[in-house]
Write a structure and sequence with these properties.
This protein has 356 residues and is an alpha/beta fold. It is 46% helix and 15% strand. The protein folds into two domains: 176 residues, Rossmann fold (3-Layer(aba) Sandwich); 151 residues, Glucose-6-phosphate isomerase like protein, domain 1 (Rossmann fold), CATH 3.40.50. It binds 1-O-phosphono-beta-D-fructopyranose.
């Protein structure tokens, strides 16, 4: 029998290797993706998923639009099913990118069916299971097969599928610099090694009761996923916001038992650090994650994870998450919980109501 938390920690620490596999898998599908993309002119891309993979959709859509310029949006699969009119723009030629670790989540599979009845546009699946329903329904499946997990909460599967979505956006935007993406596994390993102790120290800090993850642009989906890891693994009160939105009400919740994590972007750095400074003044402990280490913030009560990768922003997006997964793991362990088996959760949500 596995020790408490054994699967989760193994899966978090092994993710750089599974990214390597995901990049290789992308390379093998490159020509099929190109053929699909050239089949017709696409003027709208919809990314969908549920739970973690809905959050991944948000990051993927932001990356896709900012790199390719094609309008892209993320919607939970249930919204596509229940309110298709709110998702599909009339007369637009859409492409669907459906994301699911298992490839079996009923809502995501059903969203593909709804898409098929409305349009003849292409469907790409991003999943960890090439033999899943979702993969078989898609025109092309991008499969992170090495990222299978024994734990229920997604960790290496999430980041491996993020790497696939980065590769997809980069490729279709004409950034044919796969060597840049190939640097990610080395950076992932380095960052996990360098920041293990800070993740453990903050995760085990029993004075902290409230966790806020702030991220903008493509980092908002990553902030949401970090929030979900804290909830699933460690049953913590945690929320995610766009940094400047945090001032419009949610900051009422900040006190000295609060950790505010800023996932800082290049474009928003000045505004985002101003929010962190304000929260620092309200007594919050701050964890800043940024590419640069010369942040305009007082160093008191500031913890920093500085990537200093030199990688383009779209490539380094995935690097913001692993230390936060580790922090959630340590919080769960310090509280006697089993992060491998989150309360009330199953790995796949199957809904008879939507089953065909
Ligand atoms: C989606 C999901 C997970 C969540 C839980 C239930 O699964 O909502 O995000 O952590 O395990 O399922 P999938 O469609 O990505 O397999």
């Amino acid at each position: 029998m596995a020790e408490r938390g054994e699967h989760t920690i193994n899966e978090i620490l092994s993710q750089p290797l599974t990214w390597k596999d995901a990049l290789e898998a992308y390379r093998l599908r490159k020509s099929s993706i190109e053929a699909l993309w050239q089949r017709q002119t696409i003027d709208q891309v919809i990314f969908t998923g549920c739970g973690s993979t809905h959050y991944l959709s948000m990051t993927a859509a932001a990356l896709f639009q900012s790199l390719t310029g094609v309008p892209s949006q993320a919607r939970p699969a249930s919204e596509l099913i229940i309110f298709p009119g709110l998702v599909f723009a009339p007369k637009s030629q859409s492409m669907l990118v459906a994301i699911s670790r298992s490839g079996e989540t009923t809502e995501t599979v059903e969203a593909v069916q709804v898409f098929r009845t409305r349009t003849n546009g292409p469907v790409i699946a991003i999943t960890c299971y090439g033999d899943s329903k979702l993969a078989s329904e898609a025109d092309v499946a991008l499969v992170a097969a090495a990222a299978h997990e024994k734990s229920i909460a997604q960790t290496r599967s999430f980041t491996s599928m993020t790497v696939l979505s980065e590769a997809l956006a980069g490729h279709l935007a004409g950034h044919d610099d796969q060597q840049v993406l190939d640097q990610l596994p080395t950076w992932g390993e380095r960052l996990l090694r360098m920041h293990q102790s800070i993740a453990q120290e903050i995760g085990e800090d029993k004075t902290l009761e409230r966790y806020f993850f702030l991220g903008s642009g493509q980092l908002y989906g990553i902030a949401c996923e970090a929030m979900l890891k804290m909830k699933e693994m460690s049953l913590a009160y945690s929320e995610a916001y766009h940094p400047l939105e945090f001032r419009h009400g949610p900051m009422s919740m900040v006190n000295e038992q609060t950790l505010v994590v800023g996932l800082l972007s290049d474009e928003g750095l000045q505004h985002e650090t101003a929010v962190l400074e304000q929260m620092q003044n309200l007594g919050a402990r701050i964890l800043a994650i940024s590419e640069r280490d010369d942040l305009p913030l007082p160093v008191d009560s500031l913890n920093g994870i500085y990537l200093k990768s030199g990688l383009p922003e779209w490539v380094r997006t995935v690097l913001y998450l692993p230390t936060l997964q580790l922090m959630a793991y340590h919080r769960a362990m310090a509280r006697g919980l089993n992060p491998d088996k989150p309360t009330n959760l199953d790995a796949v949500v199957r809904l008879e109501a939507f089953e065909r």
